[in-house]
Design brief:
single chain; alpha+beta; OB fold (Dihydrolipoamide Acetyltransferase, E2P); nine-stranded antiparallel β-sheet; six-stranded antiparallel beta barrel; 31 strands; 36% strand
Length: 529
C-alpha cells in the first residue's frame, strides 16, 4: 500500500510540474497579463474557452477552480484547444512566437560522413629486420655504435669471435681438401645455419684458413632503431642485438570506436595531421581493419600506410586522423537539435504549419555536420521543431497526445501507403504493466513484438476506449490486451492479466460496440463514438 501511495504521489508531482509548463505556455499568449474568468477583457488578450484539470484533460469547467483531485484548473485559450482525438496539441501563434519555436524541413540530401580518430606511427613489419647471433661468442668490433645510424644492405654491423663458428670453418676446409662433395655440402650447410652468408663461405674456401672473427652484415638498408650491446659484450643465440627499419614507409594505427567501424572500409581516403607539424597533412588509405576489439577502450585498430620519404613521421608519434567514408545519396535528414533522446526512445515534434504539434517516434542512423539520418518515422517534406521542442513535448505529454508511430498512412517497413480500411481492426498483444492511472484510462506497457503492426519490443503509453476499466490491473502484471485503431491512434479495447484462465472479449472490459466489431467484420470501419 505504501508503494502504491508513493507511486501516485510521484506521478502527481510530475504531472503537476508539467501542468505548470502548460500554464506558462498558455499564459504567455496573453502578454503576461492576468485573464478574466468572464472571457475576453480586451482586443489584445485571447478569450478563455474553458478550464481543464492538469491530469485529466477530459474534465472541463466553465469557471476557474479545482479539479476532483484538488489541483488548480488550467485555462484553455481560444486557438489552444486540444484536438478532439488527442492526436496533437494546438498552441496559439502568439505563444509560438514568444517561446521562439523554430522549424526545419525534413529533406533528402547527399550524406558524406567523416570519422575522427587518434593514433600513432609505428614501423612497417615487412620493412623491419631484427639482427641476432646463432652461436655464442664475444663482440670484437662494433662499427654501428648508436641508435639512428643509417646503414646500407651488406654493410658490416659488427664482428664476433665465436668458437663454434671457427670450428665449423675448419671442418669445411678439411671437407674441401678431401674433394668429397657430400662432405663439402654438409659442412657448408652447417656454416649457413651458424649465420655465414654464401659469399663469406666462398671467401673462406679461397682463403684456405679459418678466421677468428665472423662479420655480421646488414640484411637491409635502413636506420638502426634499437641497439642492445657494446664492444666486448658476450652474446648467446637468440640475443637481440639490434633492429634495422626502413622508414621510407610507415604505418599509422588509429583507434576507431566500435559503433563507427561499420562506416569504414579498406581503400577509403584518410587525412593525417600531427600537433608537432601544424599546417602539414599526409594523405593515405585504409589498408586493414583489425578483427579484434580492445576490451578497455572499446575501440578497433585501423591501419593506414603512408609514404615517409623525408622521414618526417617518426615511430610512436601521436597523430589525428580523419577518415572519409564513402558518400551516400538521397538520405533523409533532420537537424540534430530536432531529436529528443530518452533512455528508451527517440522522437521529434512535428508541426503542421497551422499551430498544431504532434510527437512522433523515430529511428535515427548516422550523424555528420549537425545532421541526423532518419531511418523511420518521418516523411520527406514534414516540418519538425528544432527549438523549444522540449516545452511542446511536455505540453503534449500533459494533454495525453499519442506518439505517431510512423508517417501518416505508412506501414513501418512496408514502404507503401495504405488505405485506413486495410488496417487490422483488432490487434492482440502481450506485455508487462510499467505504470498506470486507472481512473484516467492511462497505462504504460512494455509489450512483446506485435507482428500485425510491425512493432518491435518496446515500452508504450496507451489510452483505453470508453467503457474499458483498468480495475484489477497492477504494476508488474503480465497482461494480454486488444488494440483497436480509433481516431488515428491505437487504443486498448480489452485487457486482462495472464493469470486469468481465459479472456472473455465479449464481457470483460469491452465496450458494447466492440462486441459488434468482433462479430461483424465491417463494423469497425465506422466512426467510434
Amino acid at each position: 500500500m505504501n508503494r502504491t501511495r508513493l507511486f501516485f504521489g510521484a506521478a502527481l508531482f510530475l504531472f503537476g510540474s508539467l501542468a505548470g509548463i502548460g500554464a506558462t505556455l498558455v499564459m504567455t499568449s496573453g502578454g503576461g497579463q492576468g485573464a478574466s474568468s468572464g472571457g475576453s477583457t480586451g482586443s489584445a488578450e485571447p478569450r478563455i474557452l474553458y478550464w481543464v484539470a492538469p491530469m485529466d484533460p477530459n474534465f472541463r469547467s466553465d469557471e476557474p477552480g479545482r479539479s476532483p483531485m484538488g489541483m488548480e484548473l488550467i485555462p484553455v485559450y481560444e486557438g489552444e484547444e486540444a484536438s478532439d482525438d488527442g492526436s496533437y496539441v494546438q498552441i496559439n501563434p502568439a505563444v509560438i512566437n514568444n517561446i521562439g519555436v523554430r522549424t526545419a524541413r525534413v529533406h533528402r540530401q547527399p550524406f558524406s560522413q567523416t570519422v575522427n580518430a587518434v593514433g600513432y606511427v609505428r614501423l612497417v613489419d615487412d620493412l623491419t629486420s631484427v639482427v641476432d647471433v646463432r652461436s655464442e661468442g664475444w663482440i670484437e668490433s662494433l662499427p654501428v655504435a648508436a641508435i639512428g645510424d643509417q646503414v646500407e644492405a651488406g654493410d658490416l654491423l659488427f664482428a664476433i669471435y665465436a668458437p663454434g663458428i671457427a670450428t665449423a670453418q675448419s671442418e669445411y676446409l678439411q671437407a674441401v681438401r678431401t674433394g668429397r662433395q657430400a662432405l663439402i655440402d654438409a659442412s657448408a650447410s652447417r656454416l649457413t645455419a651458424l649465420g655465414m652468408s654464401r659469399g663469406q663461405i666462398q671467401a673462406l674456401a679461397r682463403r684456405g684458413s679459418p678466421s677468428t672473427q665472423t662479420s655480421i652484415l646488414s640484411p637491409r638498408t635502413g636506420i638502426v632503431t634499437e641497439l642492445t650491446v657494446r664492444e666486448g659484450a658476450f652474446v648467446r643465440p637468440g640475443s637481440h642485438i639490434m633492429t634495422i627499419a626502413d622508414l621510407t614507409e610507415v604505418w599509422v594505427i588509429v583507434d576507431v570506436f566500435e559503433d563507427r567501424i561499420a562506416q569504414i572500409e579498406p581503400g577509403q581516403s584518410v587525412r593525417i595531421t600531427t600537433g608537432a607539424q601544424r599546417g602539414r597533412e599526409w594523405i593515405g588509405e585504409v589498408e586493414y581493419i583489425y578483427p579484434t576489439v580492445d576490451a578497455q577502450s572499446r575501440t578497433i585498430p585501423v591501419r593506414i600506410r603512408l609514404d615517409n620519404n623525408d622521414l618526417s613521421l617518426r615511430p610512436d608519434t601521436y597523430v589525428n586522423a580523419v577518415i572519409e567514408a564513402d558518400p551516400r545519396t538521397d538520405v533523409l535528414m533532420v537537424p540534430r537539435e530536432a531529436v529528443i533522446r530518452t533512455g528508451q526512445s527517440e522522437r521529434v515534434i512535428i508541426h503542421d504549419g497551422e499551430g498544431r504539434f504532434q510527437p512522433a517516434r523515430i529511428a535515427t542512423g548516422a550523424e555528420s555536420d549537425g545532421m541526423v539520418e532518419i531511418l523511420s518515422g518521418l516523411a520527406d517534406g514534414e516540418l519538425v521543431v528544432v527549438s523549444s521542442q522540449f516545452l511542446i513535448d511536455s505540453e503534449a505529454s500533459l494533454k495525453g497526445v499519442m506518439l505517431r508511430m510512423s508517417p501518416p498512412g505508412e506501414i513501418p517497413g512496408s514502404g507503401h501507403q495504405t488505405d485506413p480500411s486495410e488496417r487490422p481492426m483488432l490487434v492482440e498483444g502481450v506485455g508487462v504493466v510499467d505504470s498506470l492511472m486507472a481512473g484516467h484510462g492511462m497505462i504504460d506497457i512494455t509489450h512483446e513484438p506485435i507482428t500485425a503492426l510491425d512493432w518491435p519490443t518496446m515500452s508504450m503509453s496507451f489510452l483505453t476506449l470508453d467503457g474499458v476499466s483498468l480495475d484489477g490491473i497492477a504494476v508488474g502484471d503480465r497482461v494480454t490486451f486488444s488494440l483497436r485503431h480509433d481516431s488515428d491512434n491505437w487504443r486498448i479495447s480489452a485487457i486482462a492479466t495472464l493469470e486469468d484462465d481465459a479472456m472473455d472479449h465479449s464481457a470483460h472490459q469491452m465496450p458494447p460496440d466492440e462486441v459488434e466489431a468482433e462479430t461483424d467484420p465491417h463494423a469497425g470501419h465506422g466512426d467510434h463514438q
